[in-house]
Amino acid sequence: MSAADERAPAEHGPSLASGAAGASSAQWLERLRALPLPGRVRVMNVCGGHERSISMAGLRRALPAQIELIPGPGCPVCVCPEEDIHTAIELARRPGVTLVAFGDMLRVPANGPRSEPRSLLQAHAAGADVRPIASPTEAARIAAAHPDRTVVFFAAGFETTTAPVAALLAQRPPPNLVVLLSGRLTWPAVAMLLESEAAGFDALIAPGHVATIMGPEQWQFVPQDYGIPTAVAGFEVTSLLAALYSVLRQHLAKRAFLDNCYSRVVHPGGNPTARAVLETVFEIRDATWRGIGTIRNSGYAFRSEYAAYNALERFTLDPSQPRKRAGQMPPGCDCARVVLGKIYPNQCILFGKGCAPRTPIGPCMVSDEGACRIWWSTGVRARGEDAGVVRS
């Protein structure tokens, strides 16, 4: 049982968006503009997929000026520990090893001397057998096709990505396949933000795909323990606007609860099969987030029954390579503060000045779920450039 399961049930209010089912984006915008907002309301969208939908649709410019949308910590590539990237590079360069990873992970830069590969892509250029994959089953197929090689699957991701990895391991794939696991849970990062200091947001939009697997109840603690309006949203603009309308209505009424604005996909309890396989294969432990530090109950780790598939058990790593900036972002990179919603992407001093998708300095400019990459791809190209956001 996870820490989220142990929380007491939160109060659920009637969905404030249910009365407008089937409304168009234009109709939602009309309703939002009619709300009597007295001043600035800061709404954090946890998921990188939400941020991509918001930015591509130009919602920040379309919404009333009082509504400030803040990108949150939902980018697994951005927070993957630097030490895991270094380990992946080290293993990829060993004889007889093929390393596979989801495409974004190949380009994530790590700190290190220029004389050595500082990303998996650079390791590939130096001769390592590194391959991008799209799914865990592809890793299993590569292992089955090359029984003479050890295939290391570098698996970084949140619950939605880690569940298929667990399902693969539960099926006992080829013994020459091992996993370098860097799986994280989403909600503990938000809990850390709320526990550590005054909240930097007044309302929260929670990720629908995570709630599909883990259940919407995982987010009950936000309204229950902190009195912050919360709504689960999908990735269509209409679902996001419905969730935004709900949390703003809650804010105005001074009554916070958890609203499910993605009910056609998200159901109470989530996906029992996926949750069961996650619990069977992995356990939950404290884990490191790059540039942020250790977050309680935020990482997946192998249970002893599946230790044979743990790359860290299969290989002996070289402990003689101390790294001066272990766990940190590259010099000058403000990705950690972007991830935590402390600054906007184009407030980083490197944004548009050396750090761009073709030449990423920090991980937030690499992933399609990284806020910096999203802002750049949707037309924000300079530091401090107006992106339709409210300035403090």
Secondary structure elements and pairings:
Elements: H1 25-33, E1 41-47, H2 48-56, H3 59-62, E2 67-74, H4 76-79, H5 82-92, E3 97-102, H6 120-125, E4 129-133, H7 136-145, E5 150-157, H8 159-170, E6 177-183, H9 187-196, E7 203-207, H10 208-214, H11 221-226, E8 230-233, H12 237-253, E9 258-260, H13 272-281, E10 282-289, E11 293-302, H14 311-314, H15 335-339, H16 371-377
Helix pairs in contact: 1-12, 8-13
Descriptive report:
There is one protein chain. With 392 residues, the protein is an alpha/beta fold. The chain has a single domain (25-313, 330-377), classed as Rossmann fold, CATH 3.40.50. Helix content is 33%, strand content 18%. It contains 16 helices and eleven strands. It has helices spanning 25-33, 48-56, 59-62, 76-79, 82-92, 120-125, 136-145, 159-170, 187-196, 208-214, 221-226, 237-253, 272-281, 311-314, 335-339, 371-377, and strands at 41-47, 67-74, 97-102, 129-133, 150-157, 177-183, 203-207, 230-233, 258-260, 282-289, 293-302. The strands form three sheets. The protein has a five-stranded parallel beta sheet. Strands 4-3-5-6 form a four-stranded parallel beta sheet, sandwiched between helices. It is globular and about 65 Å long.
